Amino acid sequence: MSGVASRLAELGIALPSVSAPAGAYVPAVVSGNLVYTAGQLPFVGGLLGQTGKVGVEADSGASAGSASLVSPSDAKGMAQIAALNALAAIQSVIGSLDRVTQVVKVTGFVASDPLFTGQPGVINGASEFLVDVFGAAGIHSRSAVGVAVLPLDSPVEVELIVSFE
Questions:
Q1: pLDDT tens per residue, range 12-39
Q2: Contacts of 136 (CB under 8 A, 6+ apart)
């Protein structure tokens, strides 16, 4: 078992299969010594566990109109799942995650209730996970962006850029 595979096993996490693209694109592209992933949604077994916007009222159980609110803590877990899906896409184009030398950039999108400003905390789910998996090589630059809506009404979407040898 490879080093990254062993680390994922220690964390109790299995690398999923790569999800089929929802449009005219591929899950990951190699350019030089970099891999760029497409935006990854938090699919588990081909399904989104929750849909809707991330909002603070979700933690207290209140609802804002007809929109489904997702708690920031649930969304943080979904950011981790999206990052895991991005790792599967990376492995599909370079063969082994042990070839990753650095997570260079994480871009995270959070479908947000207009009053929600905790996007960085949500995307920490992806960032903390990548450091857990890769150690110092998982430390990266990042953007955490609030958006009105994401594909399939997903609460989060994550894309990665990694270097490899």
A1: 999 999 988 888 999 999 999 999 999 9
A2: none
How far is the C-alpha of 69 from the C-alpha of 61, rounded, in Å? 9
CB within 8 Å of 121: residues ≥ 6 apart = 72, 76
Question: How many domains are contained in the chain?
Answer: 1
Amino acid 158 reads V
- Can you list the pairs that 12-21 forms with residues at least 24 positions away whose Cβ atoms lie under 8 Å? 13/84, 15/84, 15/87, 15/88, 15/91, 15/97, 16/43, 16/44, 16/84, 16/85, 16/88, 17/88, 18/85, 18/88, 18/89, 18/92, 19/43, 19/46, 19/85
Is pLDDT at 163 greater than 60 in this prediction? yes
| CATH at 99 | 3.30.1330.40
CA 138 to chain centre: 14
Range of the domain at 19: 3-164
Cα–Cα distance, 153 to 29 (Å, whole number): 25
**CA quadruple 133, 135, 141, 142: dihedral positive or negative?**
positive
